[in-house]
């Protein structure tokens, strides 16, 4: 949803405030990685039904316990949106999990702050776990689950678990973190504003209000719809889509064939025309509110190198060639455009609160749809690189569902992923997490797992920054 200025340190000057590295290392250092018991003991006698409570910061928590509780508590972290307590992604999944014997719990996060609740979410979730133990019952074990922005919270919980969480299931998680999110979305919006609406004089950060952001989103959406009518406009829409990491498979359509540049761009434009910018631009003020400014930057951005890293680079070259446009000239125009500078304090806040991948304290299975329009599947590549660099690759597995949309999982796909996590906890080793094995876990036709490897996230960089030059 609405999950950093020096994007690729090998190619560009260091421009970020030196924040977060020591603090993040300290966060990881406090984890003692205690051993996890293999088999869950019998469930304690705990009152079944719905439970509620309030945390110290005013956050509310809820829990639902089935009559035949199996002893496992699922601690659910909800995504970006109103700070209302949730303990499952949706009602259908909630029913399926309760029917399978799992107890559910989750918090609202701090209701007094921004919808970008990363300043309180991890704390509130751990306090919800404590409240459940004190007021409802002692679980035999706890598995954390989170989706979208809550997938980032979930990755933080499993990083800092200190034995409190036995395993974790992430879904459509914004696991690349807030800094990368702000940067690649800003880059894509700069392409739209510079090449498709140069006379509109829109600003892409520092919004005065949500209405201000909505007006900018509408201006750029209108520009995209108009540009779709010409070959040159379609080429430039595809260029912006590449920097947004936007998939080329839209709802209600079949995936375009490999090499079908026109078909790929048409479906990317369909995502934008259907309201994508209203969401991602409309969400930015909440991140700015939480961070006290905007961390996005285009200072020193190597547009050529970033495009070369995109899975859509061939599509763009084909469309520019068909339109008779000079791609290098457009990239030079972007390079010459006025740069956006990051706010150092906001960058520091996001580095401290809104990153993940600095290590894992328990096994984590991440699920992602292959055509996620809000949290691109390429975020999983950036996250896996960071977990691998921390030396915890053995604890991470990732699985993919062939479907368009954000967090568009069936209840049975969630159950299949959860069963894989439970197997890892019970045996101490991962079983078969291939698409075939996950599909076989549930009735035929109820899952759509696919063996898949996402490309590189355009504009992904390490979560720690060196001293910036901007």
Describe it for me?
With 470 residues, the protein is of the alpha/beta class. It folds into two domains: 253 residues, Rossmann fold (3-Layer(aba) Sandwich), CATH 3.40.50; 155 residues, no CATH class. Helix content is 42%, strand content 11%. It is built from 15 helices and nine strands. Strands 1-2-4-3-5-6-7-8-9 form a nine-stranded mixed sheet, sandwiched between helices. The longest helix has 31 residues. The N terminus and C terminus are likely disordered.
Question: What keyword list fits this structure?
Answer:
single chain, 470 residues, Rossmann fold, 11% strand, globular, disordered N terminus
Give the helix proportion (percent range): 40-55%
**What are the segments in which pLDDT stays under 50 over at least 5 consecutive residues?**
1-44, 465-470
How would you state the average pLDDT, rounded? 90
| CA-based gyration radius | 22 Å
First CA to last CA: what distance?
27 Å
Strand order of the largest sheet: 1-2-4-3-5-6-7-8-9
Number of domains: 2
The CATH class of the largest domain is Alpha Beta
Sequence of secondary-structure elements: HEEEHEHEHEHHHHHHHHEHEHHE
Tell me the number of helical segments per DSSP (H or I, 4 or more residues long).
15
What structural category arises from helix and sheet content? alpha/beta
Largest sheet: 9 strands, mixed
Report the CATH architecture of the largest domain.
Answer: 3-Layer(aba) Sandwich
CATH topology of the largest domain: Rossmann fold
